[in-house]
Amino acid sequence: MGRPKALDRKQQLLEEILEYLRTRTLSSVTFRTLADALGVSSYVLVYQFGNREALIGDIVREIDYRVTYSGLPNELEVDYAEFEALVERGLGELFTAESRHLLRLQVEAAVLDAVSENPKGNLAQFQHLWSALVVEFVMQLGVSKEDAEALGAGLINTFGGIRLDYVLNGNDAEARRNVAASMKLLRELVVARLGGPEAAEDAMKKRVSVTLDAPALAVAQRPNPAR
């Protein structure tokens, strides 16, 4: 029986790989280029990751974790104002130089995945979960399922565009303004779907339970999660 793989060593390698990728693309990654850059033998990388597909998969899952993990409980009870603040704060934390680097790699991974023979759909899955969170929340306020699904898809697709614009332009202040404007528009649309400001007043103060499935998935799928 071979000796078990060292979990801390693999995590250390992922840290070094992400640092190496600051000025490179995922598509350029090979065991040889990484071995040369990190000062290790190709055997070490093969031992820890198996093959190139598994290596890229682990890199992407580590990126997903860093971009998505919130540190919040999986279950929350919030009113609309708290939900709004939660979303704005969570997205605002992405608009840093470190996160821009990770978001760039995440976008590249999604583009490469779209033409892969064995697509994983990582980013699409997270997008779906975030949209489902919005749908779940506004439906509990009294918005119809049809309207809630349209609002959820619209908001998450807008956020996807804001994140991509930040990757391309790096303007964090503009990104935060756009997120705030999107949340303001969502509030106006929710209030309208509930029948106007007076009719919606009680619903907007209602505390409802929501499940943060996306961060939970990011934790579960992270390479070598803490045990």
Which short descriptors sum up this protein?
Arc Repressor Mutant, subunit A; two-stranded antiparallel ribbon; DNA binding; Homeodomain-like_sf; AcrR family transcriptional regulator
Task: Report strand order across the widest sheet.
Answer: 1-2
Poorly predicted spans? none
Which series of helices and strands comes N to C?
HHHHEHHHHHHEH
Structural class: mainly alpha
Distance between the termini: 22 Å
Major sheet, described briefly? 2 strands, antiparallel
Strand content: under 5%
Radius of gyration: 20 Å
**Number of helical runs?**
11
Fraction of residues in helix = over 70%
GO molecular function, one term: DNA binding
Keywords: DNA-binding
Protein name: AcrR family transcriptional regulator
Organism: Falsarthrobacter nasiphocae
In short:
This protein has 227 residues and is mainly alpha-helical. 72% of the residues lie in helices and 4% in strands.
Structure in words:
72% of the residues lie in helices and 4% in strands. By secondary structure, the protein is mainly α. The protein folds into two domains: 60 residues, Arc Repressor Mutant, subunit A (Orthogonal Bundle); 150 residues, no CATH class. Helix 4 packs antiparallel against helix 11 and helix 8 packs antiparallel against helix 9. The mean pLDDT is 92. InterPro entries: Homeodomain-like_sf (IPR009057), HTH_TetR (IPR001647). It comes from Falsarthrobacter nasiphocae. One of its GO terms (molecular function) is DNA binding. Keywords: DNA-binding.
